[in-house]
Specification:
Length: 227
C-alpha cells in the first residue's frame, strides 16, 4: 500500500500537476514566474548559499539523469573500479556542497528579520524539503554502497516503467525506508514545483547561473543611483 502510494500515486500526481498547473501559472500570471530575488535585502550570505547549492545540485541531478537516458554508457563507465571510486567521491563532494548551500540559504532567512517578512510558508517548506532531499541522498550514497551502480539496475528500470505508464514497482519495493523517503521527497518536490519559486528551474538553469543577479539600485536625492 505504502509502496503503491510512493512509487505510483506520487509520481503521476506530480506529473499531472507539473503539466497542468505550470502553463496555467505562466499564462495567467507571468509576473509570478520568478525567484523573487531578495538580493537587495542581503547579498553576502546569499552568494555563498546560492553558488554552493546550484553548483552541487545541478551536477548531481545531471548524474541522476545520465543514468536514465544513457544507462549502458554509465554501466560501462562505472564498470571500471577506479572510475567508480572517483565518480562516487566527486558525487559525495557535490552532494555535501549542495547540502551546505541549502543550509546557508535556510540560516540566512532564519537570522534576518527583514528577510523573514518576505519569506512565506511555501519558501520554508521548499527549503526544508530540499535539505531533507540532499541529506537523504547523501545518506544513501554513504551507507548503501555503490548507489551509482545499483541505481542503474533498480531505480532506472523503475523510472523507465513509469515513463512508459506501466509502473513496475517490484524493482524498488524491497529497498530500505530511507531510499523510499528519498524517492518520495523527489516526487513531492516536483509536485510543488509549479506552485513555488522553484518554477524558475524550467527557464534554463544554465542561463540563470551565468546571468549576473538582478541588481537593485536605490535612487539618491539627486536621482543618482547607488548599489
Ligand atoms: C528532486 C530530485 C532529486 C534530488 C534533488 C536528489 C538529490 C540527491 C543528492 C544530493 C544525492 C547525494 C549524491 C552524493 O552524495 O553522491 C542523491 C543520491 C542518490 N539519489 Fe537522488 N535526488 C533526487 C531524485 C532521486 C530519485 C527520483 C531517485 C530514484 C528513484 C534517486 C536516487 C538516488 C540514489 C540511488 C542516490 C545515491 C547515489 C550514489 O550512491 O552515488 N534520487 N540524490
Amino acid at each position: 500500500m505504502l509502496d503503491t502510494f510512493i512509487f505510483v500515486f506520487l509520481p503521476y500526481t506530480a506529473l499531472a500537476l507539473l503539466i497542468g498547473v505550470t502553463p496555467y501559472r505562466y499564462l495567467t500570471n507571468r509576473l509570478t514566474w520568478t525567484t523573487y530575488s531578495t538580493q537587495f535585502l542581503e547579498r553576502d550570505t546569499l552568494y555563498w548559499g546560492i553558488t554552493s547549492w546550484h553548483h552541487g545540485i545541478i551536477l548531481i541531478l545531471l548524474a541522476h539523469l545520465a543514468g536514465i537516458v544513457w544507462p549502458q554508457g554509465m554501466q560501462r563507465l562505472l564498470g571500471n573500479q577506479q572510475t567508480l571510486v572517483v565518480l562516487e567521491s566527486i558525487g559525495l563532494g557535490l552532494g555535501l556542497l549542495a547540502l551546505f548551500g541549502c543550509l546557508v540559504l535556510l540560516l540566512r532567512r532564519v537570522n534576518s528579520g527583514m528577510l523573514g517578512r518576505v519569506t512565506f510558508a511555501a519558501d520554508w517548506v521548499l527549503l526544508y524539503l530540499l535539505i531533507f532531499q540532499a541529506a537523504s541522498g547523501i545518506y544513501v550514497a554513504i551507507f548503501m554502497r555503490w548507489g551509482s551502480v545499483w541505481y542503474l539496475h533498480t531505480a532506472v528500470p523503475y523510472l523507465h516503467s513509469l515513463l512508459l505508464f506501466r509502473p513496475q514497482i517490484e524493482y524498488v519495493a524491497d529497498f530500505p525506508l530511507v531510499f523510499k523517503l528519498h524517492a518520495a521527497l523527489a516526487f513531492l518536490i516536483v509536485a510543488l514545483l509549479p506552485f513555488t519559486k522553484l518554477v524558475h528551474l524550467l527557464f534554463l538553469p544554465c542561463r540563470f547561473l551565468a546571468d549576473p543577479p538582478i541588481l537593485y539600485r536605490w535612487l539618491g536625492k539627486g536621482g543618482v543611483g547607488r548599489d
